Amino acid sequence: MAQTQDNSALFAAISKAADQYPKPEGVTFSYGTAGFRTLGSRLPSVILRVGLLAVLRSQRLNGSTIGVMVTASHNPEPDNGVKLVDPAGEMLEQSWEAHATKLANCATTADLIAAYESIATALRINVNAPASVVYARDTRPSGPELIKALETGLAAYGSQIKVSDIGITTTPVLHYVVKATNDKTGLYGTPTIEGYYVKLATAFQTLVGNRGPLAPLYVDCANGVGAIALADFQKHIGELLPLKAINTDLDKAGALNYQCGADFVKTKQQLPPSVAAAGYLSAPKTHACSFDGDADRIVYYYLRDGKHFRLLDGDKIAVLAALFIGDLIARAGLTDKIKLGVVQTAYANGSSTKFINHRNIPVTCTPTGVKHLHHAALRYDIGVYFEANGHGTVLFSDEVLETLKNAEPESPDQKNAIKNLIALSEVINQAVGDALSDLLLVEVVLAHRGYGAEEWDESYEDLPNRLVKVEVPDRSIFLTTDAERKLTSPAGLQALIDEAVSKVELGRSFVRPSGTEDCVRVYAEAASSSAAEGLAITVSDLVKEGAAKVAAEKAGTVA
Ligand code: 16G
Ligand code: MG
Fold first, then answer.
1. Rounded to an integer, what distance in angstroms lies between the CA atom of residue 260 and that of residue 289?
2. Mutational test site, ligand 1, from 516, 517, 522, max ligand atoms within 8 Å of CB
3. Which residues are Mg(2+)-binding (predicted)?
4. Of 175, 368, 385, which is best to mutate to test ligand 1, by the most ligand atoms within 8 angstroms of its C-beta?
């Protein structure tokens, strides 16, 4: 009886909060690959409701801290978004995405309360239990208003829950803070932004050893929150690695991700105009990198012979990291004990996969999206995962860390290799892909190898490739299998694609519906640029015809 009364007080408070942020009419929200993402002005009600779900999730997990990140990553400035972070610093468990979508789409406050109650009942959650939520946002202008909506929702619980605002920071820092907060051993690191910098800086100093100071590095911050992280981090490493930040304008309207950042560089395959104009890369042996708007993605590049743009994307980073770690494992005498593997998606360039396989490192292919790669990487003792677009990290299992800490080295070289492997596990963000942490990883490997970007680039040559966006009446008819490499629907389309691919030297092509945009994506690669282009066009045409056929059939049925 008492319980029911308590609930009604809580639901009245939640209703009062939700009434202030009604759902906009005519919009259907969906918790996609990386949370909710759309125009920031549409999102206040969604953010409030995501806050409510964060509380439920925390209660379900015995009060573990859940993270809420308000960001739209590389999207244009007017967009915003929100995603939830699970206790180990991972993306929200997939089965909960449907709950998020459900709450976000309730038309009225009464519907919202009913949906909230039904989730709580189905999952046996005591809605009066304690909970803990930590949140952050990037630099988008719509951020403060959205955080206000989040706080309004969370305030409905009063002192029943613990709420912590860590302010404006990068997505990976929020993931770190969530993981560190929930780490009962206290070994992962201090659960603050400062704790993150200290952890990375300490491990980086160990890894650089007497190789420093390293050459200055130009970093395009996409006019986003990475600029803040970079400046703060610099204070912790002094001149050991001078970080020359470019595109750091956080106040200029429309500047975020505009003609700069990792997504621009990867999709346009060119330098950001700001970098080109400043001539940073014309000096020999200089390379640069770009973060995306929330600093969880990074790509590198340089000018070959001072002229030709060369991209060093997530695939190249994966190769650099995997080979280096493989060598350290061998030097540590632990080849039999530690299983190293690489995780990629179908977008990984075929040459990279072949190159890694030739070095006897197993490769797993998963569907697109960090959560898929992350879970597959957990199956290795040390799992290197990267999407070609620059999202990625390296995961060390608890058992490996134990093995390393208890190893009894038989030589100074073994001891050194073990020390470096442990430091790598600390410099690399174990929760999620992290541009800053990946940057440190790359610079460490280059310093150890004595490589510049040219030597790194020599590992393998990318096969020419094309990525095409195809607009179709209904992308939901495109269903995939085999880690998105094959279509199962529309019926018969895959056979036609296979036939087109078989006619092209080193041809490979696949089709998948986008998880973030209303389109279907076609990827094609081949031995030559013109063949890749031709294959992409052929497959795009097949997709359009297939989609039109299904639409016509449906129209026929209805008629
Ligand atoms: C999201 C994913 C990214 C993926 C991209 C694919 C996260 C954090 N982000 O941005 O990993 O590459 O979606 O977009 O998972 P698409 O489905 O539109 O091709
Ligand atoms: Mg991002």
1. 11
2. 516
3. 73, 292, 294, 296
4. 368
Dihedral sign computed on CA atoms, order 399, 400, 406, 410: positive
pLDDT in tens, 463-499: 999 999 999 999 999 999 999 999 999 999 999 999 9
Q: 209: part of which helix (H) or strand (E)? A: none
> Once rounded to an integer, what is the mean pLDDT over residues 364-377?
95
Residue 489 assigned as binding residue: no
Compute CA distances 132 → 13, 103, 129, 460, whole Å.
Answer: 18, 20, 10, 47
- The CA dihedral of 71, 86, 441, 203, to the nearest 10 degrees, is 120
Identify which ligand lies nearest to the alpha carbon of 516: 1
Contacts of 38 (CB under 8 A, 6+ apart): 27, 29, 79, 80, 81
Top-confidence residue, 95 or 557: 95
521 is in an annotated binding site: yes
Residue with the smallest CA separation from ligand 1 atom 10 is: 34
Condensed to tens digits (0 to 9), the pLDDT of residues 320-350 reads 999 999 999 999 999 999 999 999 999 999 9
Which fold does the domain 465-555 belong to in CATH?
Answer: TATA-Binding Protein (3.30.310)
What percent of the chain lies above the pLDDT cut of 70? 99
Task: Provide Rg for the chain, Cα atoms.
Answer: 24
Neighbours of 167 (CB within 10 A): 11
The arrangement of secondary structure in 193-310, i.e. its CATH architecture, is 3-Layer(aba) Sandwich (3.40)
Q: Which of 15, 30, 41, 73 is labelled catalytic?
A: 73
| Catalytic residue flag (residue 502) | no
Q: What is the mean pLDDT of residues 235-246?
A: 97
Peptide bond into 141 cis (omega under 30): no
Running DSSP on this structure, what letter comes out for residue 282? G
Alpha carbon 462 to its chain centroid, in Å, reads 23
Whole-number mean pLDDT of the chain?
96
CATH of domain 2-168: 3.40.120.10
Q: Supply the pLDDT for residue 515.
A: 86
For the CA of 432, the nearest atom of ligand 1: 8
* pLDDT tops 90 at residue 3: no
Annotated ligand binding at 294? The verdict is yes
On the 0-12 / 13-18 / 19+ scale of CB atoms within 10 A, 37 is buried
* Cβ–Cβ < 8 Å for 230, 221: yes
**Which residue's C-alpha comes closest to atom 4 of ligand 1?**
369
Which atom belonging to ligand 1 lies closest to the Cα atom of 521? Answer: 19
Structure tokens at 197: 């910098």
Three-state DSSP state, 126: coil
The domain made up of 314-457 is a member of CATH 3.40.120.10: yes
Which ligand sits nearest to residue 434's alpha carbon?
2
The domain spans of the chain are 2-168, 193-310, 314-457, 465-555
Distance 342 CA to ligand 1 centre (A): 19
Q: Would you tell me the crossing angle of helices 44-60 and 143-155 to the nearest 10 degrees?
A: 50
Residue 371 CA to ligand 1 center (angstroms) comes to 10
Q: What pTM does this model have?
A: 0.95
In whole angstroms, what is the distance from residue 84 CA to residue 66 CA?
7
